Amino acid sequence: FVDEKDAAAPSGIFKADRTTLKVKSGKPEPVIISFTPADIIVYKYYLKIKSNALTASKRELKIPITGEGMLPKLSTDTTELDFGNVWIGYTQTRDFIISNWSGTGAGPLSIYDFKFSNDLDTFSITQPDIRNLPVVVKAGESLTITVSFKPNQIRDYAAILSLSTDDPENRTLKINLKGKGIELPKNEPPIAKIYARVKGDWVECSETQPVDLAVPGELELSGNFSTDPNDDPIIGFQWNIAKDENNKEIMPEGSDYCFDCAMGRNTHFKDSRKDITKFFGDIVGDYKVKLIVKDATTLESNPAFCAIKGYAAQALHIELRWNTPLTDLDLHLINQSAISYNPPTSDGTFTCPCDCYTGNRNPDWGTPIPYKNICGSSDAVSIEDVDEISTQDAEGDENCCHNPLGNTCDPECIPNYGVDAVCIAYNDAGESYMTTDPSCYKGGNKCVLTCEADTSDPNYKAAIEDNPTLDIDDVEGFGPENINIINPASGNYKITVYYFSDAGIGSSDAWVKLYINGINKPEWTFGPFTLNKSKQAWDVATIQWPKKGSSDPVVVQALQPWTLKTISRCIGCTCQLR
Ligand SMILES: [Ca+2]
Ligand SMILES: [Ca+2]
Ligand SMILES: [Ca+2]
Prior knowledge:
single chain, five-stranded mixed beta sheet, 1 helix, 37 strands, binds calcium ion
């Protein structure tokens, strides 16, 4: 290696891997030249080659050879990483930054190795990827190095991370590491709490803080007041009826409600796996509800319990249940204060509106529901000839406006009323007639009822509250069926149970409970009474309901069961109520 003037170059800067060689004809030979700059300068020399080349001018060649001396220069933002307290089994990371200077002659920095002094299973390099070494930091750039600490013991840790580099002034960079493995805090189970919506407000419900529920009726329950000692989110909710020590669900005998009957019986909850559910109490008595919640680690709570007292909100509340599946028993309440029946049966059973049952669930007893009077006295119409008038409404429904006394009209008839629907009315002599007039004419110059209840009438509320209501017709076993009257009119009422269909199963035992004036326990329990087969009936009791405030209702248990011989239906039947 020589300079321009053929003087020898400083030794050690450039080196060839050989000083002589033979090159065979047509076979090039490589020469490897290394460059080891000693300073941050540009080196410009020549490689002089002497040979026995045929051409004299080529026997001495001078090949220019240059190189620039450069230097990496490492700096770091810290030489100590403190990981602090870390739960054993958990990972904490810390970063530090290595920078390579950007001045004149700045060269790339290579890191050839990352080495931990000890605890190699605890400390590791998360980034950069050190599977491919060296890691190179270009001049003027920096690199973030992330170190992980994952203790597996409860103790103090200390180690040194050594980086081997090509910075001649910093061949080994040492980073001190420390941290402490601490015990993982124990995950505590969540604490379930049940709140119930009472008059719009959420109130806590427990075994010692029961909530009242007018039955049949719904109660909204929330599990959102549950807590977790670790502040874990609550992610799972399971509502059930609680069970007693004999594994029997705690609810009144005969309670058999299903929100979603396809899911099975006794699904008293709607959305039993949601934070907010609805509980349905079907009969009077004590229920106990259970809630289990899960935290985000799926750790389960102990159950919370909520006692619910189902009470009868109505002055008269009658409940029927029985003990066979698939069978259909029907509860009847007969208003014996009706003054006549047509067709006359022995006591009015199956003659509506005197009989409240599945065929007539909500008749108008006591004070008649007031209807709007839509015409004045001068609009009186004359009696029409029954034979000449259509009995269909615009949709072809027959007798849609069937209206024995003008007080049980089908409201859907109203739009067609007076067009082509027909109303049945009575004259003063008690004879029925049909009319297409919007007002059902009744005698003389009086204009009478239309099909539209007058909810603004001051008597409307009382007229509704003295009507009986059958809640459901259970047709596949067990009941319950309830008939309620919020505020009965004075008069005599009879309770009858009718075995509509034994479904081939045979006899069925029936029970009737009677609650009067909303007391939260059965006032009277009748039964079990055995009904042997379809079409049999059981006269349960009669109730003499007094005038308001005059005395207590009198309940008389019927002595003789009786058996219906035929089934009659409530089609076109009439009876007049007092
Ligand atoms: Ca927890
Ligand atoms: Ca039934
Ligand atoms: Ca009424």
